C-alpha cells in the first residue's frame, strides 16, 4: 500500500482526530515557537516547520503539508502522534481535553522541567517505540539511537540526560520484536 493511501486510510478510519496543518492558528504556533526558542536558548527554533504536533484531538503537520505531498516518513509520524492522542484520552479518563491539560502539566513540569523530566521521557519513548515498530512493519530502516539523541537533546528540552539508558530501553523493548 502506498504511503499516501496509508495516510488517507488512517484519516478515514480515525474520525476522532483531525489531521491538519500549522497554517491554522498561526498566532498560537508563533507564540509556542517563541516560548520554546527562549526555553532552549535558541537551540529549538523549528517547531512550526520541523515538527508534527498533537494538541487534543488535532494532529498538526507543518504549513503546506497535504496528503498528496506527504513524505515517506509521515505515516510513521502520524502513528507516533496518534499515541499522544491515546495518552490524552487515557489521562482524561475518556475526555481528550482534560487529558491534554493533565498531559501538558506532566509533560512540561514533573518531576522537573529538564534533565529528568520523567513524564516527557515516558510519553515520548512510548510514541517513538510505535514509530520504530511501524517503520519495521513497513520495512523502512529505523535507528532508535536517533530517538535517544532527540530525547536527550534540545528537541525535547533534554527530557532525559542519559542517552545510553534510553538506547538500552529501546534495545530491550525491541529485542523480542525482531
List the main descriptive attributes of the protein structure presented here.
single chain, 178 residues, mainly alpha, three-stranded mixed beta sheet, 57% helix
Structure description:
This protein is mainly α and 178 residues long. The protein has one domain. Helices cover 57% and strands 6% of the residues. It is built from 8 helices and 3 strands, in the order H-E-H-H-E-E-H-H-H-H-H. A 3-stranded mixed sheet has the order 1-3-2. Strand 2 and strand 3 form a beta hairpin.
Topology:
Elements: H1 3-13, E1 18-21, H2 26-39, H3 47-50, E2 53-55, E3 58-61, H4 74-91, H5 96-109, H6 118-137, H7 144-151, H8 163-175
Parallel strand pairs: 1-3
Antiparallel strand pairs: 2-3
Largest sheet: 3 strands, mixed
- Alpha-carbon Rg, integer: 16 Å
Helix content: 55-70%
Mean pLDDT: 87
How many structural domains are formed by the residues? 1
Our measurement of the CA-to-CA distance between the termini, rounded to an integer number of angstroms, reads: 22 Å
Q: How many beta-strand elements? A: 3
| Structural class designation | mainly alpha
Instruction: Describe the strand arrangement of the main beta sheet, using strand numbers.
Output: 1-3-2
Low-confidence stretches: none
Q: What does the overall shape look like?
A: globular
> For this entry, what is the oligomeric state of its chains?
single chain
Strand content bin: 5-15%
Q: How would you spell out the order of helices and strands? A: HEHHEEHHHHH
Count of helical regions? 8
Amino acid at each position: 500500500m502506498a504511503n499516501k493511501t496509508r495516510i488517507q486510510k488512517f484519516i478515514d478510519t480515525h474520525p476522532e482526530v483531525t489531521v491538519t496543518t500549522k497554517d491554522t492558528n498561526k498566532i498560537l504556533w508563533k507564540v509556542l515557537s517563541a516560548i520554546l526558542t527562549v526555553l532552549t536558548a535558541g537551540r529549538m527554533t523549528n517547531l512550526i516547520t520541523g515538527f508534527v504536533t498533537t494538541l487534543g484531538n488535532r494532529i498538526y503537520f507543518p504549513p503546506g503539508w497535504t496528503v498528496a505531498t506527504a513524505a515517506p516518513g509521515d505515516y510513521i509520524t502520524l502513528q507516533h502522534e496518534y499515541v499522544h492522542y491515546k495518552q490524552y484520552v487515557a489521562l482524561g479518563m475518556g475526555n481528550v481535553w482534560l487529558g491534554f491539560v493533565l498531559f501538558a502539566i506532566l509533560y512540561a513540569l514533573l518531576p522537573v522541567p529538564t534533565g529528568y523530566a520523567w513524564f516527557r521521557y515516558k510519553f515520548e519513548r512510548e510514541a517513538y517505540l510505535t514509530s520504530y515498530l511501524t517503520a519495521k512493519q513497513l520495512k523502512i530502516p529505523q535507528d532508535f539511537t536517533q530517538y535517544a539523541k532527540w530525547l536527550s537533546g534540545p528537541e525535547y528540552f533534554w527530557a532525559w540526560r542519559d542517552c545510553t539508558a534510553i538506547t538500552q530501553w529501546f534495545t530491550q523493548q525491541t529485542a523480542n520484536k525482531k
